[in-house]
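Can anyone check this?
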Amino acid sequence: MKNLFNKIINSDIWMGEERAQMIIEYVVVFTVIVAAIIVAATALIRPSIDKLFTDTSESINKIGDKFVSDMSY
């Protein structure tokens, strides 16, 4: 019985399953890290992007208003 157990543990099938489990664990860890980066980037970058769009919109409106007021002369 002990000899059979050692054959199973040292077989290629066991090592293949072990390797597959390691790959799955690495994929899960990688996915969690990428998700954390995306969440952090969204939380940190979103206010800057919103400010950029607001400032750009205000600049376009000011230039448009100036253009319209210059056309009225």
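Reply from J.R.: I decoded it. The chain has one domain: 2-71.
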